[in-house]
Amino acid sequence: MTALGVFDSANLNGGQKLAMKYFAVSLALFGAQVLFGVLAGLQYLFPDFLYGVIDFSVNRTLHVNALVVWLLYGFIGGTYWMLEDEADHKVVGLGLGNLIFWVLTLAVVVVVLVYLLVQVGPAEMKSIWLINEGREYIEAPRWADIGIVVAVLVFFFNVVATFAKGRYTGIGGVLVMDLLALAGLYLAGMFYTPNVSVDQFWWWWVIHLWVEATWEVLVGCIMAYMLIVTLGVRRRIVETWLYIEVALMFGSGILGLGHHYFWIGTPQYWLTIGGFFSALEPVPLVAMVVHAVFDSGVHRLKNSNHPALAWTIAQAAGNFFGAGVWGFMHTLPQINLYTHGTQWSASHGHLAFFGAYSTAVIAFFYLAAQKSRGNVWMSGNLAGGWKWKWSMAFLWMGMIGMTMALLIAGYEQSQIERAIEGSSWVGYFTAQAHPWFVQAMKWRQISGYLFSLGYVLLVWDLFTIGKRETRPIAELHAPSAQPA
Amino acid sequence: MTTEAWWASPSLWRKSAIWITGGSFVMLIFLTFDTMSYIQAGGKQVPGYSIINQRVDYQFDEAKNRYVPVIGPEEPLFGKKLTEAEAAALVSKGKLNTQAKNCMECHTLLGNGAYYAPDLTKAWLDPSWGSKEVREQQMVEFLMNPQDRLHNGIGRRMPNLGITEEEARATVAFLKWMSAINTLGFPHNFKAIDQSDAPASAAAPAQP
Ligand code: HEM
Ligand code: HEM
Ligand SMILES: [Fe+2]
After folding, report:
1. In-domain check, residue A482
2. Which of A46, A54, A62, A63 gets mutated to test ligand 2 (max ligand atoms within 8 A of its CB)?
3. Which residue among B21, B174, B184 places its CB closest to the CB of A263?
């Protein structure tokens, strides 16, 4: 073992070394997401900015795709990170896992270059196969889809084989089932149909059943592990909570899918089913908050990694507000008729993705930073501890600022464009030109800059935290020991 | 360890999780099959592709208390009546064009997508095209050369996406077909372009 505070991959187990690679790409793509978000936001204020060069659609495609991919990289990394601890066995097939990491990353680079340089194609199937599928969030061309499926299968094999050779914990069992569902759902987005209603029906299977079901359970698993590691919470308690969360999340989220089937040509019964079940979706999110706060209280916040724990608590709160509160606000059809497809959705989309998922991945980044420096002290009086605090503060100020600005823009649109003007072309631009909307776009942009500053600090911090520390990790009162 | 309350037992909750998830999923599968009978082309709420041979309108229905698509007399797109197969091929080409050009990352379709440009659900019926007589040509020209057709006072222009005339016509067909989907009243309060025939003759509302 090398000196404390010095970065050395010898501090990590095999799965964790691979996880570090996923985390590195994840962090870089997070940066790309922020960059293209800022560019897209600027185009709202200055429509001629980059017009005809990198149009809004291109910036936005890169913005949302980078988002999806950096989160998936973070989740895959997080899973590899905990795999050997959980299974109590070395990762099976690690060499293959490493290989597929490079293949996947190369594919991501090619896809991004094609988005940027080729942008659009003729109205033929080859455009779908080679350039862009033109379906928000899952634009990746078909060849890349297939590559993604293969990569995920390899990842899945690593996970299952490792648990099978080692031991299955409760967390492990939930994780495996959930990954299977997550990968299977992706297939629902891989076909072409001229029928836009059928297209969107299945498109939502992927998007909604990812973010409101399988991703939620996935972060449930990795956050459960996080609570064990950072706070030393007893496994039995954490796993019981995990089962409760799965029951509530899938019980509400699967049929909650119906809140996207109000207006796309789907039958009327979805108004009732979608409204009812999606209105219940905040319940598990409340349970998660109770769980995190309760455990933190029981353990008096005594923990070994302040930044990771802070982001874990932020995850519970962000998930509750972004998905639970902001989602609930527009989930009933009586409201959604007017808010559907306005900046309301963007307001919710930002707070939910950041609150529920970015936070979880960032927490893992900090866990990784700690261990890779030899389990250095990262609790109170950490040298240079201002950086993680200010980065967190800027990221949240930026995010809350954006969310509020977009909410105001969304209110304005739902009333002027939707209710009064009836969503005509003129109605749309009447709302876009309204001072309330224009001001909101300015504030979104300013908040975006704050957010970017937070991102820069985050990167700087992750590369330096614990560097000059000479103290070892804080002892936890309850050893995180094995009993499964 | 002391005895544990039954409701705090992991195995109870594991079983609940499995049953609830399974039950919800079975329900979803069942509803998916049923929904398909509504949304397949020619289904209960989504028209067949040859609807582009007819007038499509969007009007308030007093009894339902919401806007509904109204199918009118024969009014073939570009003046040429198509068979179901020809219409399907044309609409499909148009739909493919919307994907190849990534329309959804600026516009919304059926309310889903991006918010940088107007919703396209009822674009075919938008009064901004001027009149029913010039609409088709206006749309084709706009799609081919949007860059010098500013439709608003805030300087936001659609970029030139290299859409050919053939692609533009197919896209218009797709938009016409999409405007006939019964979206349960979304968008609410939308006032369609005047499509009545010669002066004073009333439109002929008929339920699909
Ligand atoms: C972490 C979990 C969640 C994430 C990441 C998330 C994200 C999103 C995003 C990005 C959209 C916009 C999709 C688009 O581009 O059209 C969306 C739409 C929506 N979300 Fe969520 N969401 C989450 C949870 C929830 C929950 C729990 C609810 C309800 C209680 C909810 C209700 C809705 C509704 C009703 C829409 C449709 C908006 C519209 O009609 O335009 N979401 N969500
Ligand atoms: C500097 C920070 C950011 C800026 C300036 C920014 C800007 C934007 C813009 C301009 C759009 C297009 C919205 C539209 O169609 O009108 C967008 C969409 C979106 N952004 Fe961001 N963004 C930022 C950060 C983030 C972060 C951190 C997340 C999530 C973690 C995020 C998630 C999303 C999502 C999910 C959408 C699609 C929303 C929808 O379709 O409803 N963005 N963003
Ligand atoms: Fe949803």
Report:
1. no
2. A63
3. B184
